Structures are given as C-alpha cells and as structure tokens.
Amino acid sequence: MPRIDPASVRLRTTTTYPPPYDAEARGRSALMLSDAGGLSQFGVNVTILEPGAKSSMRHWHENEDEFVMVLQGDCVLVEDAGETPMRAGDCAAFPAGNPDGHHFINRGPAACRLLVVGTRLDHDIAHYSDIDLKVTITPEGNRFTRRDGTPYPGKGNTT
Amino acid sequence: MPRIDPASVRLRTTTTYPPPYDAEARGRSALMLSDAGGLSQFGVNVTILEPGAKSSMRHWHENEDEFVMVLQGDCVLVEDAGETPMRAGDCAAFPAGNPDGHHFINRGPAACRLLVVGTRLDHDIAHYSDIDLKVTITPEGNRFTRRDGTPYPGKGNTT
C-alpha cells in the first residue's frame, strides 16, 4: 500500500562527516520517509533536532533544490546575513546554486522536527560555508574533500 | 530571505479540469509554497480540502514521483484496492509509473491539510483511473485528452 507504515521507516542516527565534524551531528536523527516509500527522484525526511542540535553543517548545493517546513517546535535558520527564528508551520526554500549556506539550529529546550525535501540528482556538489569542506555526490557515493580537493578520510552524505 | 513570507504564497483556488470534471474540484485549494520559494525541480504545496472535497481526480503519473503527508485533519486515500484512513502525520508515496491511481477525499466534518510534493519534469503523462481522461505535461503547458487522444477543451494542471 502507498500509505507508509511507520514501522518500515528507518531512523538514521549516524553521520558520515569526517572528523572533527562528525561530532557536530550529535542530537540529530532523521526518519527516512521517501526511502520507505520507494521514491528515487527526491528525498523526504523528518529531521529531529534535540536541544542544541543542528540540521547539518552550514552548506549550499550547486545543483539540487531544497525545501524545509518546521513541523514541531522552534529553531533558527542561519545564513550569511544572520539568524531567522522559525516555528511550526514556517517554511524555507533554497534554490540550487544560491551560494548562501544554511542550516537550522535548535537553541530551545524541546525537540524540533523539520520536514526536509531535496532533489536527488546523479551529480551534485555541496559547499560548506564556515569550514574547509565540500562534498561531491555521485551514484557511487559521496566524497568529502577540503575546498582545494584534498581528500578527507571517510565518505557519506551531505547532511 | 529563504524563509518564505506567508503573505507571498499564492492560494490557488481554480482548476483547469475540462467540464464536467471541473465541478469535482470544488472545496479544494492549495498554498503554492515552492513557487513562492523560487524552486523549480519539485513542487511543494499545502492542499486544503474542505469537507467533501478531493485532492484530484484519481490518477497516476508515468514519470513523476509523488509524496503526501497529512498535516491536519483526517481523510481517506483511495486506490484500486479500496480506501485507507489517513490522519495527521500519516504519509504516502507514489513512485512514478505505478499504474494504481490515487486521490485523497475528505469525508469528515472539518478541513484537512495535506503537504504534497511532486517532481517537476519537462515531460510527463498522468492517467485518470475512473474517467476517460489523461493529461500530457510539457513546458508549453498541459493538454487534456480522452484516453484515445481526442482533445478535451481547456488545458491546465494535473491535480
């Protein structure tokens, strides 16, 4: 049935950020909804941020659009220009290629839930705004490097 | 700012279904979120179903993935095999090319809100399961025909 059985939805709790950035993913998890539903063209997850957690290192995508809706709780959206408070029902959109990195931080006392949608393309590069890191995304996997292309150990996803 | 200003979000209340199916869209509206946010690779809207309204005529897409999350209220998901009750938090996924048409009907006394995501491709065909209708989607617009290709008057969107 197309209705997604909640018991079939994987809760991702790991990160593949290379050290020392892996420690920045503490308190973040994600319900992988579109994987459970068999979709391939875009990804949908519910990202859960415990108090103090962030959605990702601040980044932007060369090729893929992103959309976020706050489902529950409060957080702040951080960009080049500063911080924007976000609460349940608020939405944000990040068109591909706009080089203004973003992430969401839960500075409150309660968990926050974000619905996150992103295109899934065969090739993309995401740039991290505040650290010497970028990631190249291909069907074979994701490859983290420094900005100058020097490899980092490990490989993984962009969030 | 990437945060979407609610005042900038268009509420679509019209339909371009050809008669007599245009009457079936009564009580349905949609907040066009991804348009307001400048996204092009996938569409995101919040579809609002008043009591008795349906999300669309029952249909499936040849090429585009679809995802739905119930944000508020109750409805039923209708497919070939029958009806599935859906309530806030429930999700459903419709991978491209699965020829099992779907739509959502609000049979309750209160409004229902659905978050709807769909890929935006340059070419797609949607087939309507219960009526003599299909639609061809191109950058030049959408063209409704009978199943045998005979044109219907009017043209518009697939939902």
Question: Could you walk me through the main structural features you see in this protein, from its secondary elements to its overall organization?
Answer:
- Two copies of one chain form a homodimer.
- By secondary structure, the first copy, chain A, is mostly beta strands.
- The first copy, chain A, has a single domain, classed as Jelly Rolls (Sandwich).
- Chain A is built from one helix and 13 strands; from the N terminus they run ββαβββββββββββ.
- In chain A, strands 1-2-3-10-5-8 form a six-stranded antiparallel β-sheet. A four-stranded antiparallel β-sheet of chain A has the order 4-11-12-13, with no helix packed on it.
- The mean pLDDT of chain A is 94.
Give the largest interface.
A-B, 36 and 36 residues
Described by strand count, sense and barrel closure, the largest sheet of chain A is:
6 strands, antiparallel
Number of strands of chain A: 13
The helix/strand order of chain A is EEHEEEEEEEEEEE
In the CATH hierarchy, what is the superfamily of chain A?
Jelly Rolls
Features:
159 residues, 42% strand, mainly beta, homodimer
How would you summarize the topology of this molecule?
Two copies of one chain form a homodimer.
Chain A: E1 11-12, E2 28-32, H1 33-36, E3 42-49, E4 59-61, E5 66-72, E6 74-79, E7 82-87, E8 91-94, E9 103-105, E10 112-119, E11 124-128, E12 134-138, E13 141-145
Antiparallel strand pairs in A: 1-2, 2-3, 3-10, 4-11, 5-8, 5-10, 6-7, 6-9, 11-12, 12-13
